[in-house]
């Protein structure tokens, strides 16, 4: 059974940083595009960032561009989200996702989802 397990969430002050990790039990991890989404209370889940299977291409939501960086280590079956200059509005549950097709993450399409990790930013 495929599992995506997020870690690294927690609390931070505005202007601070957090680094999320997502460990995937995908045998063919290096063939999946990976992404991060978030859902704030009372809001719909939204796309945050995605990285191609090779790691050579990335995509970001405008709201996080320049502050967040997505990366992956295919040798460790892990994807990361480095979050800098955090804002109160970044508070949400963050989800990791895997897309075997490689093109659907921006549209919320994924084959597998993690359980989420809470990020809380105090202003």
Give a written overview of the molecule.
The protein has 123 residues and is mainly beta. The protein has no helices and 11 strands. The chain has strands at residues 4-7, 10-13, 18-24, 33-39, 46-51, 58-60, 68-73, 78-83, 92-99, 112-113, 117-122. Strands 2, 4, 5, 6, 9, 10 and 11 form a 7-stranded mixed beta sheet that branches. Strands 1-3-8-7 form a 4-stranded antiparallel beta sheet, with no helix packed on it. Strand 5 and strand 6 (58-60) form a beta hairpin. It starts with a strand and ends with a strand. The mean pLDDT is 96.
| Average pLDDT | 96
Shape: globular
For the biggest sheet, the summary is: 7 strands, mixed
How many helix segments? 0
Strand pairing plus helix content: what structural class?
Answer: mainly beta
Task: Bin the helical content.
Answer: under 10%
Task: Give the helices and strands, then pairings.
Layout lengths: L3 E4 L2 E4 L4 E7 L8 E7 L6 E6 L6 E3 L7 E6 L4 E6 L8 E8 L12 E2 L3 E6 L1
Parallel strand pairs: 2-11
Antiparallel strand pairs: 1-3, 3-8, 4-5, 4-9, 5-6, 7-8, 9-10, 9-11
A few lines on this structure:
By secondary structure, the protein is an all-beta fold. The protein is built from no helices and eleven strands.
Task: Supply the key terms.
seven-stranded mixed beta sheet, mainly beta, 123 residues, globular
């Amino acid at each position: 059974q495929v599992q995506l397990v997020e870690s690294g969430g927690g609390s931070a002050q505005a202007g601070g940083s957090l680094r999320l990790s997502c460990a995937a039990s995908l045998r063919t991890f290096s063939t999946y595009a990976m992404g991060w989404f978030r859902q704030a209370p009372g809001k719909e889940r939204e796309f945050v960032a995605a990285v191609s299977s090779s790691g050579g291409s990335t995509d970001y939501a405008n709201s996080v561009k320049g502050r967040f960086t997505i990366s992956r280590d295919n040798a460790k079956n892990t994807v990361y989200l480095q979050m800098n200059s955090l804002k109160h509005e970044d508070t949400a549950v963050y989800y990791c996702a895997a897309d075997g097709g490689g093109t659907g993450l921006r549209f919320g399409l994924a084959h597998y989802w993690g359980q989420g990790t809470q990020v809380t930013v105090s202003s």
